[in-house]
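Below is a filled-in request sheet from our internal design queue. Each sheet records the structural input a requester submitted and the sequence that came back. We keep these sheets so that new team members can see what a complete request looks like end to end.

REQUESTER: design group, bay 2
PRIORITY: normal
MODE: inverse folding
CHAIN LENGTH: 229
BACKBONE (tokenized):
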């Protein structure tokens, strides 16, 4: 079943930049799709459109075969991880991770705390729940951002070059962690990267985009290139 469908979408920014031209992409439940391409080819734009952030100039986007109104309902949640760990510096890790639950107002205080503990455990940060972001390494801050995305148990996880700013060792370790979590939970993930290695290592399917004028040029299925995890 499709989780998100982008049909013949054009995106032209206010200054006239054509960021997407006739983009077609369907992501099915349980897939791990990477968007790969050079800087400026429209990866972030496509990902943001899949998150319902920002309008489109032409075409259509569907979530769970419905319009955007369905997003947020039970079993149809999405979460977005930005390139930089966008934590609130004045709040402890626990409070940062809890923010989406407080916004959702769907859980009682103790349920929310339990969900926060679980999300922190998934990314291996439970010992740092009471630390402030500045006390964490870059990799750990990124983990906290991922925990904040996971805390609502999203059915669709959209990640915009989440590890682009990290050193290679930390990045490889986090790649393994994401892969392990994905295998365990059968998530649907769309992951933006400009690293061929990362795309091939992580995904079922690599969607390759060309620089001009924001087109998808190829889709490559990756059949378990080597034992995963
Ligand atoms: P990528 O993520 O592949 O680097 P983007 O989706 O960020 O590509 O950008 C695609 C194109 O759209 C680029 O030419 C970029 O400069 C332009 N662009 C992105 N955001 C905006 C914006 N808010 N206003 C105008 N142009 C933008
Ligand atoms: P990451 O891969 O998350 O960036 P690092 O490689 O920076 O992690 O850190 C390795 C280990 O060092 C962490 O798992 C953590 O246990 C410990 N560590 C890192 N930063 C701190 C800190 N500020 N205080 C205490 N322990 C830390």
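RETURNED SEQUENCE:
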């Amino acid at each position: 079943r499709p989780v998100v469908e982008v049909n013949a979408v054009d995106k032209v920014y206010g200054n006239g930049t054509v960021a997407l031209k006739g983009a077609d992409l369907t992501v099915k439940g349980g897939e791990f799709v990477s968007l790969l391409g050079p800087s400026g080819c429209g990866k972030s734009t496509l990902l943001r459109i899949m998150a319902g952030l920002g309008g489109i100039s032409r075409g259509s986007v569907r979530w769970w075969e419905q319009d955007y109104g369905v997003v947020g309902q039970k079993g149809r949640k999405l979460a977005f991880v930005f390139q930089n760990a966008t934590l609130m510096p004045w709040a402890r890790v626990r409070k940062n991770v809890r923010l989406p639950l407080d916004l959702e107002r769907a859980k009682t205080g103790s349920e929310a705390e339990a969900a926060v503990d679980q999300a922190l455990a998934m990314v291996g940060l439970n010992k740092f729940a009471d630390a402030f972001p500045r006390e964490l390494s870059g990799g750990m801050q990124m983990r906290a951002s991922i925990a904040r995305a996971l805390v609502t148990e999203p059915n669709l996880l959209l990640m915009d070059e989440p590890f682009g700013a990290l050193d290679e060792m930390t990045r490889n370790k986090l790649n393994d962690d994401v892969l392990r979590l994905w295998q365990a939970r059968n998530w649907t993930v769309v992951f933006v990267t400009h690293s061929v290695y990362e795309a091939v290592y992580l995904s079922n399917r690599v969607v390759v985009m060309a620089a001009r004028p924001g087109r998808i040029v190829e889709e490559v299925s990756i059949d378990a290139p080597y034992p995963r995890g």
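SHEET NOTES:
- The CA atoms of residues 74 and 83 lie 27 Å apart.
- The chain has a mean pLDDT of 89.
FILED BY: M.R.
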